[in-house]
Amino acid sequence: MKTTTPYFDGFHIQTLNRKRRSIEKQMEDQLVMLRQKSLSQLSEYFGRFIPSTFLQPSDNRAHSRRRVFSKSNTFWGFFSQVLSADGGCKEVVLKMQSYASMNGLKLPSSSTSAYCQARKKLQRSELMKILKHTAKRLNYMPERGYLNERRVVVVDGTGVSMPDTPESQAAWPQLRHQKQGCGFPTARICAFFSLATGGLLSFEVGNKKSAELPLFRKQWDTFETGDIFLGDKGFCSYYDLACLKGIGVDSVVTLACRKAVKASEALEVFGANDLLISWKKPRWRSDSAYTHSQWEALPAFIQLRQIHVTVNVPGYRTESFHVITTLTDADQYPAADLANLYLQRWNVELFFRHIKTTMGMDILRCKNPDAVFNEIIMHFIVYNSIRMLMYEAAEERGVNVNRLSFKGAVQALRQWEPGLNHAKLNKRERRRIQTDLYNVISDNRVPLRPGRSEPRCVKRRPKPYQLLTTVRDKMIEHRLRNKHTLKMP
To answer: How many CB atoms lie under 10 A from the CB of residue 322?
Structure first.
């Protein structure tokens, strides 16, 4: 008999015959959900700094499919790896297993192979886009407190080392006086920082044959009209001062390679130690870092200010120095303000210390040049993200961001991260945790200690081990390693 009972809206008779899903199918669906989740809930806090659009699956073969270590998971796993105190790949896999366990999912493999292969697929160009985005975000933050509200860009260079592999040695050779197998590849980095926010704006990497000036000149497009460039005596060059002035960027550096001009030779005397001087264009040489046509385009003379600064602080290595600047208006830029500005140049040393010592970039882990570049970029991305977090915390509490401890912020993030990964937190609870995190970061302040002397000396003595003077398979170790008088056989 034919039934005439109408079906209810939204009621499908075929669902009555559907079989109950198996446990394996439910676990598979949960694994798909895990793949779509970020490895770390750090993405929810840094997502406004690093939008998810940068981490979408690629159209090409690399990261084109949804896997446990998807593009997003791999990036945030790399982010968490740089942020962690250990910094090993195994720790990222263990975090993935912990996250799966808390959500009742099947644990992924304990091998680091899948994660390492996924990390190799991260393109350098994509990481550079993320770094430039964080630099722009920091650039939008208000600059204040430096020379008529002008942005001050401080520049300096540093070095990092990495594992001794043939690929890295070819890209960044070790020092010439070191024996083969006894040294490590060393890369040179020249970076631009915002003095107000401490954020990294750009960088270039070279080897031991790359001086800071060529790496510095590659980044001139980072400057904007009206910026003030702040550097040490390594950047005191007629060519650079003249070219930067031509694009609307003033410079404040210390005198090098030239004799100080006497008051009797000055164009104008603004004060006892403040002179308006003129530099003549140097002669071009074949070994110059610029071409003859670039030399011809330089002006025959440039007007500068020479300020003699005396350091009366006990314990300081330097007793006096000369500041050279293109800010020639003595009324708008008093000598005392320029001397104080150059004193702030030491902050760039602290920025590099945060990145190399606090975050552990001094000795890199990757073993080939492409992976080393990605590791350097990721360190800078994490550094800028922490800087933005510190800036927001300082804004909420009305504190100067330079007074906040960078190491304290890193330690707080390391301890807060397990709580952020809790699956049962709602948006209100996450917001409360974020507010508490901001309060903790803003409470870790660096005391004001003007004039404090911090000599670059090591108090703790190293253990009396022999130095490696040849390759390991040919090295003969002394039995009595405490006796330094023994000689190699």
So the answer is: 20
